[in-house]
Amino acid sequence: MCSILAAFLLLTGCSAADSKNLAQSKSKSKPTPERSCSLFQGSTLAPTPPPLPFGGDVRLVHYNAYPYSDGFSSVVALRDGTAYAVGQRQFPAPNRPDGPHEPCGSLRWSSFVLRWDGTSWQEMPAPERVVEPRHVTATSDGHIWVFGICMDPSANGGGRGCVTHWDGTAWTASEFQIEDTQFAGVAAFARDDVWTGTYDMLQHWDGERWQARRPPLHIGALEGTGSGTLWIAGEKDGHPALARWTGREWRSVPRPPIPRVYKDQGETRVLDIAVGDQGEVWVLSSMYWICGEEEMTCTRPVLMKWDGFRWTVKVMPEESSIGSIVSDGAGGLWANASRNLTHFTGGEWENHPITRGPLGGRTVAQLARRPGAATVWAVGQDGTEDEKMPFSNGIIWKMDP
């Protein structure tokens, strides 16, 4: 799933308007105006959040009061109530290794991980090497894996897919390195049984090394269950496909019947997967077709459910916008839909407004439900279009139905 932080992380901290104003000031020999990327007291410090928890159904329970830009990208919840959230933040780099930080200089990126101990979210030591995290997974004995992008000098300043592992004491970056940085998902069944996948490759950790395995389909999403079953959804021969790993072999299910709605309808791509406690598997896809006089590509959400015997396919309204999905544990589904969390049960959708942050934003990156319970966590960021730092701050929301 793609990182929603990208738009903010491309910003360098000084706007084009700032540069123009500075040039004009110098030409007129006037004092240099205050720059929006400087951390002047009271002007660009992170906003103070309201007393937490705050809000209605989807409550704001944690806010990163960080003076630069940051945000969360992934969250995982465990059966014992522990949860982990991972994100990315910017910080100013010094002009020299032993020099001071320059607020208007170049910005670097780093990852951070928070742990929910049942009472509050506490920041852990920073993960090694991963500068743009995409997914986090963990086991109940305190082992954590963060998957994302590591900077690779040999890739002309670009990055490669990589993983770092917390063993309860320290982070250790793995030799695992792949060119594909679009992780389809992660699943950890035990400290020696961890899976991740990209479009055309699965990677399995057996406790000693990562092994590449060829999947039976092109992967769009991946999820594991508490019983140790691994599901992958994606595309095969131009059609949506679903398969599960039995521990010995892959077993595919019948192809879902995608209705033909448009004359110029193209492929249907898998975006996310959610496996329920009753064995049902939800697959969120996007239908593509050519639309308008300028022949643009339009999309429309398609929600599919496999109950173990047959498919139920629901084409959502064209104006619908659905992001991350997660099972509610009772046969229904939670989804991130614009500025709401929406609950699908009994064929009906019920919206629950997401509490906005002090900057006015509320962008959700991912959802996670505590196994065996109804609690749903949502992580993302508060954001603003103002040309002052912080451009965004990380938010964690909690839903207790």
Contiguous low-pLDDT stretches (5 residues minimum) are: 1-36, 38-43
Order of strands in the sheet with the most strands?
1-28-27-26
Q: What proportion strand?
A: over 45%
Kindly state the mean pLDDT as a whole number? 85
H/E element order: HHEEEEEEEEEEEEEEEEEEEEEEEEEEEE
Overall outline: globular
Structural class: mainly beta
Distance between the termini: 26 Å
Largest sheet: 4 strands, antiparallel
Number of strands: 28
Share of helix, binned: under 10%
Instruction: Please work out how many helical segments DSSP would assign.
Output: 2
CA-based gyration radius: 22 Å
Signal peptide: 1-17
Keywords: Signal
Region (Disordered): 23-44
Protein name: Exo-alpha-sialidase
Written overview of the protein:
- By secondary structure, the protein is mainly β.
- The chain has helices spanning 6-9, 16-27, and strands spanning 58-63, 70-77, 83-92, 107-116, 121-123, 130-138, 144-151, 159-166, 171-178, 185-190, 193-198, 201-205, 210-213, 218-224, 230-236, 239-245, 250-252, 265-275, 281-291, 296-306, 311-315, 325-327, 333-337, 340-345, 348-353, 363-369, 376-383, 392-399.
- The strands form seven sheets. The protein has a four-stranded antiparallel beta sheet with strand order 1-28-27-26, with no helix packed on it.
- Strand 24 (340-345) and strand 25 form a beta hairpin.
- Residues 1-36 and 38-43 have low confidence and may be disordered.
Keywords:
28 strands, disordered N terminus, 2 helices, 49% strand, globular, 4-stranded antiparallel sheet, 401 residues, mainly beta
